[in-house]
């Protein structure tokens, strides 16, 4: 791994998780305030996360196994916020605390 | 107020004092990077760093214990069993910490023999306290376990949170025993030492703070027991699922078999996934309960914990957890940056929320708010973000120049330490460290002064 590739790869890995966090944060806030624009921005964040994962797969010198793991992680990111939200809603409704 | 809650206030006081000591020696340690010959042969950098890190471990442990003593009688509807013993061990704990600190300051180190091991410094990173003191800590933890389990038995009541807490006490006690052996083979020593550092601090503590936060959420936000317990079970499952084998990322370069590269990298890569769920949960709960909270500082610190944990452990951790990156980044200021952010997010924010819960109850005010806590909150967060950014830049410079270009030689290390990027990062860390310290001063001021009588909001804000 070249010195430049080291920094590039690390930054891309960090940005991948940050974009995932942006997706989760915007999705949650958008659903909370019922603002479709925020949910759309959340989707854009997830697309950015996927693009970063693909960039990691194409550009960086990581081993193939790690590249697959990174891309699969980015795909799994798509599911986590909506699934968590649905679970929370069900749980809170069952407790009489629903929105 | 229960007798155990009075004890917990003493634990909180001791924790806050040690928090200050930790910051003081953190600032001193940071100064050594700017003035390497400072206090040469008078007070070494290594001792300053020991005091910084060991007080971190102890103040958080004391705060956790205080939090459990605070909530235990409320949770079980029964005064804590063995209070006299608990009160004695509190003073024993304080005395042990004070004596060890004095030995570290005035004696610092000794010859490589049994006397040093028992009475001056064990020589194992993060658990440097001499062996007699380590035995003392085990005794304190045993009494703590007796208090918790004995109270549950006496009260004839077990909640979901209590089950998790009691089961967590087993590894909390057993894994700490790993502080004792002193194998002469460095690989064997590090192999087990990481059980102590990773399993104790990153797994059993995660579960412990999870229990504490579950109790705080019910208290501060009025979240139902079923909801917090459901999340606590999920958290325990995820911590144990990804966290235990995530230990492998510490085994990359200590002489362990090659398969740890795959195991450690894979399970570490899974660790950000549950953190995304936590971000969603915190937003949901924040929205649902925003105006129902009667303790605004505690509420903000709880929210900060979710985000701090995500960024510090998730983003910062994932940047450097894969073996091909970690080969260059481990042992640099990059890992220091991750460590600072992750500890702050995962533990410090949660513990500060508990301090404000106790403040509200002791002050007897129905609604806790004000201005000072906002300053403290802002200074702490601004200071921490600045520090970790400075450390990240310095660490990347070390990995880039010292490791990737220089090939990890001593000369390359020295040259990287003189690199302008490294020096700039260290200055930034120092400056933002001072800001963080100011946050501490305001926190102490805010906790010590009586709260202003702020009327609770009469009209609910926007519904969630």
Summarize the structure.
The complex is a heterodimer of chains A (99) and B (464). Chain A is an all-alpha fold and 99 residues long.
Structure characteristics:
heterodimer, A: 99 residues, mainly alpha, 3 helices, 86% helix, elongated, B: 464 residues, Cytochrome C Oxidase, Chain A, 3 domains, 16 helices
Walk me through this protein's architecture.
The complex is a heterodimer of chains A (99) and B (464). Chain A is mostly helical. In chain A, 86% of the residues lie in helices and 0% in strands. In chain A, helix 1 (3-32) packs parallel to helix 3 and helix 2 runs antiparallel to helix 3 (64-94). Chain B has 464 residues and is an all-alpha fold. Chain B folds into 3 domains: 1-157; 183-270, no CATH class; 275-449, Cytochrome c oxidase-like, subunit I domain (Cytochrome C Oxidase, Chain A, Up-down Bundle), CATH 1.20.210.10. Chains A and B meet through helix 1 and helix 3 of A and helix 8, helix 9, helix 10, helix 11 and helix 12 of B.
């Amino acid at each position: 791994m070249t010195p430049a590739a080291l920094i590039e790869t690390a930054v891309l890995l960090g940005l991948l998780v940050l974009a995932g966090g942006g997706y989760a944060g915007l999705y949650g806030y958008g659903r909370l305030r019922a603002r479709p624009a925020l949910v759309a921005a959340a989707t854009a964040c997830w697309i950015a996360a996927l693009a970063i994962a693909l960039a990691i797969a194409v550009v960086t010198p990581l081993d193939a196994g790690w590249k697959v793991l990174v891309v699969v992680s980015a795909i799994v990111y798509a599911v986590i916020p909506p699934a968590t939200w649905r679970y929370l809603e069900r749980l809170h409704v069952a407790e009489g605390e629903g929105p | 107020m229960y007798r155990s809650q009075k004890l917990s206030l003493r634990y909180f006081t001791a924790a806050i004092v040690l928090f200050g000591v930790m910051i003081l020696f953190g600032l001193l340690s940071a100064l050594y990077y700017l003035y390497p010959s400072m206090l040469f042969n008078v007070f070494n950098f290594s001792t300053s760093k020991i005091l910084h890190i060991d007080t971190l471990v102890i103040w958080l442990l004391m705060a956790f214990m205080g939090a459990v003593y605070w909530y235990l009688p409320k949770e079980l509807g029964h005064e804590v069993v063995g209070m006299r013993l608990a009160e004695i061990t509190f003073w024993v704990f304080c005395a042990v910490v004070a004596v060890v600190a004095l030995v570290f300051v005035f004696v610092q180190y000794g010859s490589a023999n049994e006397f040093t091991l028992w009475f001056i410094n064990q020589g194992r990173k993060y658990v440097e306290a001499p062996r007699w003191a380590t035995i003392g800590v085990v005794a304190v933890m045993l009494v703590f376990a007796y208090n918790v389990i004995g109270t549950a038995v006496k009260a004839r009541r077990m909640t979901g949170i209590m089950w998790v807490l009691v089961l967590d006490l087993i590894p909390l006690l057993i894994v700490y025993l790993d502080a004792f052996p002193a194998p002469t083979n460095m690989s064997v020593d590090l192999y087990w030492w990481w059980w102590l550092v990773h399993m104790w601090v990153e797994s059993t503590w995660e579960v412990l703070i999870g229990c504490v936060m579950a109790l705080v959420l019910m208290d501060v936000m009025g979240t139902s027991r079923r909801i917090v317990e459901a999340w606590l079970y999920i958290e325990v499952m995820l911590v144990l699922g990804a966290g235990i084998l995530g230990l492998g990322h510490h085994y990359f370069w200590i002489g362990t078999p090659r398969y740890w590269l795959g195991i450690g990298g894979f399970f570490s890569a899974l660790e950000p996934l549950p953190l995304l769920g936590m971000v969603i949960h915190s937003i949901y709960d924040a929205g649902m309960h925003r105006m129902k909270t009667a303790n605004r500082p505690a509420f903000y610190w709880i929210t900060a914990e979710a985000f701090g944990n995500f960024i510090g452990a998730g983003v910062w951790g994932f940047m450097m957890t894969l073996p091909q990156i970690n080969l260059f980044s481990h042992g640099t200021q990059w890992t220091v940056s991750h460590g600072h952010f992750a500890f702050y997010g995962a533990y410090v924010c949660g513990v500060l929320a508990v301090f404000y819960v106790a403040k509200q109850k002791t002050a007897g005010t129905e609604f806790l708010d004000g201005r000072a806590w906002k300053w403290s909150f802002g200074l702490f967060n601004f200071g921490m973000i600045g520090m970790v950014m400075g450390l990240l830049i310095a660490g990347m410079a070390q990995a880039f120049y010292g490791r990737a270009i220089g090939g990890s030689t001593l000369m390359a290390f020295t040259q990287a330490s003189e690199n302008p990027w490294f020096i700039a990062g260290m200055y930034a860390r120092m400056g933002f460290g001072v800001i963080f310290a100011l946050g501490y001063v305001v926190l102490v001021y805010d906790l010590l002064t009586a709260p202003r009588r702020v009327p609770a909001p009469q009209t609910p804000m926007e519904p969630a």
